Amino acid sequence: MKKVECDIAIIGAGLTGLTLAYYLRNSGLRVKLIESRNRLGGRIYTKVSENNTPLEMGATWLGNKHTHLVKLLHELQIDTFEQEIGETAIYEASSMSPHYLAQLPPNPEPSLRISGGSCVLIDRLASHLDEEDIFLGQFVKSINLGDDYIVVKSENLEIKARKVVSTLPPNLLGSNIDIVPKLPNEAEQIAKQTHTWMGESIKIALTFKEPFWRAKGLSGTIFSNVGPIPEMYDHSNAADSKYALKGFLSGNYFNVSKEERLTIILKQLRKYYGEKVDAYEEYHELVWRKEANTFTAYEQNVLPHQNNGHHIYAQSFLGGKLFLAGSETSAEFPGYMDGAICSAQNTYERLMQDGE
Question: Which of 290, 314, 342 is the last residue of a domain?
Answer without folding.
Answer: 290
